[in-house]
Amino acid sequence: MKKENKLIYRGLRLIFKPLFHILFRPVIIGRENIPSDGAAVLAGNHKHAFDPIFVDVCTKRIVCTLAKKELHDGKFGFIFRGAGTIPVDLHSARNPDALDAAVRALKEGEIVNVSPEAKRNNTSELLLPFKFGAAVMSYRTGAPVIPYAISGKYKPFRGRVTIKIGSPVYPAGKDTDTINREIYNSVAELLMKIMPQDELKSKRFSSYDEWRTEYEKTS
Known about the structure:
GO terms for molecular function: 1-acylglycerol-3-phosphate O-acyltransferase activity. About 40% of the residues lie in helices and about 15% in strands.
């Protein structure tokens, strides 16, 4: 990430970190699993637009987040561009430019946050099918993937959000499909542990193999 982007990022964090602690009282479990230095891919479920900010709250490090292209081109695009987020075209089957940018960041020792579901999950499924971006980033750089799950009520002053961070998934000796499977299963396990029971009972869990045969491998 460029120096000027880091300055803007830190400025935004000074505003949003205390604000989110006041509004949502986040509970962070497993913070120690995020490395204090070196490259890592953060990968987790995606329920709300605020999820990337909650991930940022979990670490003192600068997190380079993949964000949909519409945010970069929209009314507040200057904020996303200024903070150094990487634009992703969700309407395209492949995003080589975004993937290459993420790989460059990882090779420079940075942390990259990606949502493998590629969109917010407002369905009856526990998780949507996982795209292969996080797995490919890890495979190409050797960086571990740190799985996480977010659950809770996104209601200011009335809700509470829990973020549970799991043990690293290491890519050594694995292909991208195996890495992606481990990420998916890890995120699902974490989410089942923190999601309220009444909500969890209403969700259907599709195993990796169930949806894997229906979707082509994409990056």
